[in-house]
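Input set for joint prediction.
Command: fold jointly, output tokens.
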Amino acid sequence: MQTRPLTLNIIGAGRLGKTLARLWQDRGIFSVAGLCNRSRESTQAAVDFIGAGDVYSDIMSMPEADCWLIATGDNEIATSAHRLAERFSARGSLKGTTAESRPLIFHCSGALPAAALNACRPAAIASAHPVHSFADPERSLTTLQGSTVALEGDDTGTQVLRGAFAMLGCDTLSLSPEQKLLYHTGSVMACNYLTVLLDLSLQTLAAAGIDEQTARKLLEPIVTQTVRNNFALGPAHALTGPVARGDAETVQKQLQALQKTDRAIAEIYRQLGLAGVELAQKTDLSDNQANQLQSILREQAK
Ligand SMILES: NC(=O)c1ccc[n+]([C@@H]2O[C@H](COP(=O)([O-])OP(=O)(O)OC[C@H]3O[C@@H](n4cnc5c(N)ncnc54)[C@H](OP(=O)(O)O)[C@@H]3O)[C@@H](O)[C@H]2O)c1
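tokens >
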């Protein structure tokens, strides 16, 4: 017997919401029903991108659905959940439902636990955070597969989402609510701060008089190779350069040069250098070399 796809409503079909909706709709995993963004124009644009769904101006008028994704910005998730709970209550949506027949409400924030949706109980609640950047929805349609999605929340909810993301070629990882914040912080440091670091590197190359196009061309192969080395060898064995070699003289000259051009970048160089010394000690850096580097890197600009 063929089962019908579960229906899915979306509150906040922005970059993430419309990408997931399009993928799930195209593969027949969910049938996209109602969408509601802040503006009607943006909701219509999401419907056009997904190729399915209907535009709603407010949560109150949205139709019933098996699953509801709240994919607004993080700071709007709890407010939207309250509004949805009011809608459930006004429509009697949860009356007479059993644990199996209640709708699933989920969000995709990495920083917030499923409990941000507590207002919607006794509906099932869950959070599903894809470790993926949805900066460009069109690109994400082809690049999401292979990403990991961190799941947390009620068993019934996480089970549905595990299946839905597996059908998109994603791995899933189960987390407790207590793990979520540091899990997300770790992902942010690797992904977002790598971007920040690249920007600081470009600023430093610009201070050396190298134009951005040349600088990007120069960095791309070495940065790509460094990322590959990190995943193949682990950070301790991937680390190269003056800190890994114990080259105190070069580190001192570089720090002094930065302190003259940009003190904020110099501070970051100092702090990351100190972390680098600890990392290098896991392989070849001797205690003597480490002490020399630390005394240089602990010296703050006057
Ligand atoms: N982007 C990523 O790479 C990424 C990765 C993993 C997880 N996430 C998570 O995914 C969620 C959405 O992020 P995003 O980047 O997709 O955000 P986004 O592109 O800014 O989209 C947010 C959407 O929510 C709508 N919205 C805001 N407040 C609303 C409200 N009160 N009622 C109804 N709709 C509302 C906005 O409508 P308008 O268009 O009308 O303003 C917009 O369409 C967040 O929880 C985020 O942490 C994002």
